[in-house]
Inverse folding.
């Protein structure tokens, strides 16, 4: 086994050693490691991706983790910058936090763990009169500093929390937007949250929702970045064991289904709302605690893979190129689980940051959509399924020229003008 990959030997939430495999996915390279040609060899290694279930608290997690410095040392994903809808949703989210949890206090202080390029807390600083601090391990912290968003280049943990406490004081809000699932040591992370939060402070955590992942076959969420796959029942117990209290949960449309969890210190000022119980009741009814609950995901993967190859194989035999649209971390998950690496001639992406780079492992070039007319692929597989309709709408000329888009979610579909 690679020295860059380490196994988890216990549950990340309750420390139980009773872990059982529930989903065996294709080995993957680091999903977002699209590299320039001279560094392409740095993305040549693939690592196991097995989903485990804790038989004690029913938490889902990866079987192990890749050295995080390999993931975040050269990082491209800036979702709130490249997705206007998400950026607008984040503004509404920030407004909600300040309006509902500030207790009419002045001089508010918010810390964001995994702050990316700082766009969320930049809005809080500029529009909501809040003192802010980001903690971001990747190279994207430099973008935040350019926008005058104070940011520490590190992983948030209990030691970093102590440093922030000494230098800045306690915070009113600790925010983690699609970060908590990526953390190696969640117990230590929460220890840092408790250290930093005021007694009436709120930990605001948004994450993709594993119940929706299973329900809708959202395969793109299974990556080496995501180490945990959360739903409310195990989270509630986890917070309680660590002196915290989950007092509200909201479902939001981000990533086709995410949850916002609002957490306070034990005996904090906020009443525990009915939403917590309602989510848990729904999860039990759905069978999230069931060892076999991910069998439908396995079936979806196998059926989709067969349908894609049944369609593209005759095109390739006729000498036509096959392309893919989208180069997110999830696109790597799709490429490997649908065994597309040897079939693709190039990737298309609208993010200029990615143009001219090579894909992880297979070194497939990433180009602008302008190249579609020049290359004339026989089919383009959309690897950003949540944005498929927008992609097709932006590339109508390709369809007019006889091209075909392949959508595989929520069901397999070939889109053409013929």
């Amino acid at each position: 086994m690679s020295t860059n990959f380490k196994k988890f030997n216990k549950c990340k939430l309750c420390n139980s050693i009773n872990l059982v495999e529930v989903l065996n996915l294709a080995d993957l390279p680091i999903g977002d490691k699209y590299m320039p040609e001279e560094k392409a060899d740095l993305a040549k290694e693939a690592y196991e991706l097995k989903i485990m279930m804790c038989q004690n608290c029913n938490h889902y997690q990866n079987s192990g983790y890749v050295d995080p410095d390999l993931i975040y040392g050269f990082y491209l994903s800036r979702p709130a910058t490249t997705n206007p809808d998400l950026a607008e949703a984040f503004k509404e989210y920030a407004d909600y936090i300040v309006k509902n949890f500030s207790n009419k206090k002045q001089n508010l202080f918010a810390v964001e763990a995994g702050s990316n390029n700082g766009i969320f807390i930049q809005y809080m600083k500029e529009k909501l009169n809040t003192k802010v601090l980001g903690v971001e391990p990747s190279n994207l912290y430099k973008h935040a500093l350019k926008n005058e968003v104070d940011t520490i280049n590190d992983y948030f943990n209990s030691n970093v929390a102590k440093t922030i406490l000494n230098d800045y004081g306690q915070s009113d809000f600790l925010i983690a937007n699609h970060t908590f699932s990526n953390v190696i040591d969640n117990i230590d992370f929460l220890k840092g949250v408790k250290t930093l939060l005021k007694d009436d402070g709120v930990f605001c955590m948004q994450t993709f929702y594993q119940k929706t992942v299973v329900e809708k076959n959202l395969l793109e969420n299974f990556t080496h970045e995501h180490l945990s796959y959360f739903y409310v029942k195990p989270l509630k117990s986890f917070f309680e064991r660590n002196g915290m209290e989950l007092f509200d949960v909201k479902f939001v449309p981000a990533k086709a289904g995410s949850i916002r969890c609002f957490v306070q210190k034990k005996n904090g000022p906020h009443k525990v709302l009915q939403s917590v119980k309602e989510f848990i009741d729904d999860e039990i009814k759905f069978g999230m605690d069931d060892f076999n609950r991910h069998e439908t995901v396995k079936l979806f993967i196998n059926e989709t893979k067969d349908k894609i190859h049944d369609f593209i194989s005759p095109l390739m035999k006729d000498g036509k190129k096959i392309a893919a649209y989208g180069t997110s971390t999830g696109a790597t998950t799709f490429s490997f689980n649908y065994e597309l690496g040897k079939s693709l001639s190039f990737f298309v992406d609208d993010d200029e940051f990615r143009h001219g780079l090579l894909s992880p492992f297979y070194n497939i070039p990433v180009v602008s959509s302008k190249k579609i007319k020049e290359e004339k692929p026989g089919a383009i597989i959309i690897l950003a399924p949540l944005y498929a309709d927008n992609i097709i709408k932006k590339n109508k000329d390709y369809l007019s020229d006889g091209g075909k888009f392949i959508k595989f979610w929520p069901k397999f579909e070939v889109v053409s003008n013929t």
